[in-house]
Amino acid sequence: MKHVIKGVSQPLVLVNPSGAHTVGLEPELLMVNEYGCLRWSLIRSSYYANLINENDVVEKYKEWKNTTEFLVLKGKRKVEIPSLTPEGSGKVSYHTFYKFLKAAKRGNDVYRKMVQQKFNVLNKIEPITFFDREWKTKSTSLLFITLTYGRKACNDCGKHFKKSLRVCPYCRSTHIHDVSISEAWENIGTDFNRFVSNLKKQYGKISILRTWEAHKSFDPHIHGVIAFHDHDFPVFVQKTIDKNGNVVYKYRIPDNDNKIITGYWHSPNIDIQGVANTQEAVNEVSKYITKDLCSDKGNKTAAMLSLFNKQSYSISKNFVEFIGGTSADDKKIRQEENALLLSNMYNSNHDVVEWEFIGMLPAKIMGVYGDIVSFELDKPPPDLKKLIEYEHKRYISVMGGR
Question: Are 202 and 189 in contact (CB under 8 A)?
């Protein structure tokens, strides 16, 4: 029998409702919660216990992304009851209901919409042109930088280099080691912050739009647009031919600056290009975040970001204003993080006076099917109501009452 809400059918039974993981369980069961849904904390535990490898993690990521789950919220709506007599003042009562919102998961439709909303704000900003290819004298204060990891590292000087070497080419030390995928991803934030700190010491105030990306080998690299508030770089044209035979123009900075900036990174694998205009820079970075989300490379990147608990991208507070935006644009970009959630929560709910987070339930257990993003129930069916009550108790227990 179906409920009145289109796409909602009878809830299914719980999987392992006790939530206990016992010795002897299949590895697959060690990575799911009591509802049978994958959880990244459990995937990480299996990865570090060498029960799964990076290729397995990608498959788990795709399964997790494609498993629809709903945030469950309990709302309280104010209802004004008018008086039946002219002299009466009427009454106010409160009505409770439940709101179900499809959870944003890195790479799913809700997540992609959130990211696209954020970058649409950047795309609407009038671009600033630093130079044109035909100009005789060209300079820019915006650089596009790609930072890559080496396959071996020196234990003494910390530099990275190619895997075939047995001696550090920088300090000649023989105390070297292979750089594992986990080591590179775990250190990526610290390494990048150190790189940025050195840039600030050399060139003054900077702002950044950056994203991480995974190679086919799962090793990370960094794409960043770096705005230099107090420095301009002269650029010269480098004409190259890409793998498809097309002519490509790249804009290189002076050798001295290139050497200084390269020296701040632990690997010689660094590419530095001058940016001609702000829109070109935004497009170059945003394509790694939005365009490739559903590709094989995008799946690898999203899986590694999830495995090592990394943010997909970051935008410095002053970056938006540097590229011609305003503080209002910056504020809007930061608000877009929750824009979809807020719009779904408050649509036709302006009289809601209170929200309470109940927990998160999988669609398959709730009996929800189709492309439903959000829905409300004033009186959930008995089975679903029991499930909501169970989830609320479970959530409070897991969160320690917070």
Answer: no
State the amino acid at position 261 in one-letter form: I
Q: What is the rounded distance in angstroms from the CA atom of residue 120 to the CA atom of residue 254? A: 34
pTM: 0.85
| DSSP H/E element including 330 | helix 327-335
DSSP letter assigned to residue 325: -
Q: CB pairs under 8 A, 24+ apart, for 88-93?
A: none
Mean pLDDT in consecutive groups of 10 residues from the start of the chain, 402 residues? 45 46 65 93 95 96 96 88 65 86 92 84 86 90 94 93 92 95 95 96 95 93 94 92 85 96 93 92 79 76 95 87 79 62 57 88 90 91 93 85 50
Nearest-angstrom CA–CA distance, 298 and 58: 10
Q: Which of 222, 185, 211 is nearest to 289 (CA)?
A: 211
Query: What DSSP string runs through 258-289?
Result: HHHHHHTSSSS-EEEEE-SBHHHHHHHHHIII
Q: How far apart are CA 322 and CA 317, in angstroms?
A: 10
Residue at 317: amino acid letter: K
Contact 374, 100 (CB under 8 A): yes
Instruction: Kindly tell me the number of DSSP H helices and DSSP E strands found in the chain.
Output: 12, 16
Cα separation, 213 vs 313, whole angstroms: 10
Question: Residue 169: CA atoms inside 13 Å, Cβ hemisphere, count?
Answer: 11
**CA–CA dist 68, 103 (Å, integer):** 7
| Contact of 61 with 299, CB cutoff 8 Å | yes
> Other CB atoms closer than 10 Å to residue 96's CB: what's the count?
12
Phi, psi for residue 150 in degrees, rounded to 5? -85, 165
**183, two tokens:** 């080591």
Identify whether the C-beta of residue 359 lies closer than 8 Å to the C-beta of residue 394: yes
CA dist list (Å): 259 to 129, 270, 304, 393:
26, 10, 31, 59
Q: Which residues contact 211 (CB under 8 A, 6 or more apart)?
A: 222, 223, 224, 285, 288, 289, 312, 313
Cα distance between residue 92 and residue 82, in whole Å: 9
